[in-house]
Amino acid sequence: MRLTMLAGIIASLSNAMVLSAAASTSYYVDCSTSSNGKGSVDSPFNQLTAASNQQLGPGDSLLFKRNATCQGQLTINDSGSIGSPIVIGAYGKGFDLPVITAGNKTNAVLLNATSHIVIENLELTNPIGNTVRKRGLYIYAADAGNITDITVQNLYINNVRGLMPSTISPFNAANGKYANATGGLVIEAGGNTTSTWFSNILIQNNTIRSVDRQGIYTWTNWCRRPAMASFWDTLCFQPWAPSTGFVVRNNQLYDIGGDGIVVKGYVNALVEHNKLIGFNKRSNSPNAGMWTANSDGSLFQYNRASGGTTTSDGMAYDVDHSTSGTVFQYNLSHDNEGGFFLICPYDKPTQDFIIRYNLSVNDKARGFEICDGALVNGSIYKNTILIGSRITSNLVQESTNASLDVHLVDNIVRKSGSGAVNWQLSDPKFIVDHNAFYGVSSYAYATNTITSPPGLAMPGVRDPKGYFLVSGYPTLGAGIAVSDDASQDFFGNPVASNTKPNIGFYAGPGTNAANTSDLFDSYNIGANSLSGWNSTGNIKIIADPAGDLGNSLQLSGGSSVKRSIFGQKNFRLSVLFWANQTNASFEIDLIGSGKILVSIPFSSSGQFGSLSYTPNEWHLVELDVNTSSLLAQPSLDSQTINSIKYAGIIDSVQFKAEIFADALFVVDDFYIVIA
């Protein structure tokens, strides 16, 4: 009998294994075929309705043919399991992504209350609309409990034209945000009967371009708690059920109609290593770059936000209402019309926020705008702010009579050129101490202020390495220790715990200033004669093609520019370049006695050595030159290629062929690289 039972158990286990293996199936979609098949690789589905109707189980894949376009909405209602997610992705040869264009549908892809799912390697568009709700990817759940384990990666979401305040009448600033928002990637927890929240959502390595209104946006109807600002009482209605485990990492966002990345209704969200260029472009209403509201413990770090338009907000970053424990650290902001930071509490205090080790370059209207409402235990320390010519701004702009419990310490603010930096602040509880303010109007309550030049290595560039501190300047070792400080600065330098720290976001030793530099911003548009440069062919100054770097130098086919540098010492050179296409080769040369000693060619196939580059984007080229070993080490966007041996003494640098160039910076002794 025992043998019979054992045989039965073995048979049952064997059957379970067979069923498990059988359950893991790949289904195929090729919308370029003329007839709808059964979903096999030889007989694929050719329409999204059939693909959406296919029931999927743990471990299954739904794969779309590369270089084929499907029209309509893909809807996924099924879930995988732990360790066996459903995968929505691509198949076939080549690198072109499968395209899903929504047509007259609301979403290109809808994930409806699905857990344990991966969606990757697709292009999503939704171009028809702008007066109705439109989205690329919509992750939605209502009355569903915990929706968990969703990965969104390697998507290209573009040309999504959802409604915004600017596209429908009458004007309403809420159009396109809050519940049922429009945009590239929207995540929403809805319903009214069963608490609904998300856990462990990963959004990584996606590109989002030209979408309206939102870039990456979250919302929940499960929002109400004592800390929530009262004006949301008309926007969301159910008790607090926060989402957790939200990570937004390594995404690139361009030309966003409204907000860039928004976190609402989360605890301990992480937003890092994202790039946002161009936001608040078309909404005609308040929008910011990256921000959080009604959330606790949000961490934003190593992000870049630039090109925000209008002063209707228009700031790079925002610690908004109903938040506690928010940290913004190691971020870059530049050329945003609205300014650097918004801090917006409304009728409930914004609490325990930290803004540290960030860099702001040429942000305009205000450094820190404070909305109506109180701030409790806020810290703004060890940031570096450069405000260039023709900019007039308020460093702190107070729009409230409420108490502002904030410490502003160990920051560098440097003003250069025309314009002014003023204060709109009168609350003595807002502590301003041990800062370096150069070219900044005095503030009556400021203490221990350094007013001499702070010693920035290359002020004006948009790369953080231009804001190392030069040896001999008073900002080195002049700060005060801050409790619960970070262990390292923006660059990974350890923060001194037993000695006096530096002021600003750089904690390292003193370095050298640039001996050769050109930002090209001092020339008029159309200029073709550049001081310090020898040129051949057709060159001219143009507005930066990305729209967030001021002016740039354009070299048309066959033209070149050359200028002297000092190559007797070890040095590092860096420059930004932009190519409109990858089918025209060009090069960067180091020259000595009229001969090319080091040539860094970019091939006509879009290669930089073993690395590839993307057209119509800025890329950073760096050259570390060791004049003792006669080796030049090139890198592209911080990735190195093989070093180059040379012979001779370098005396000049040359850019040749059809590119845009910007932000040349040469520094002796390997201290820094700038572009």
UniProtKB/TrEMBL annotation:
InterPro entries: Beta_helix, PbH1, Pectin_lyas_fold, Pectin_lyase_fold/virulence. Residues 243-385 form the Right handed beta helix domain. This is Right handed beta helix domain-containing protein. The lineage of its organism: Eukaryota, Fungi, Fungi incertae sedis, Mucoromycota, Mucoromycotina. It comes from the Eukaryota. Residues 1-16 form the signal peptide. Keywords: Signal.
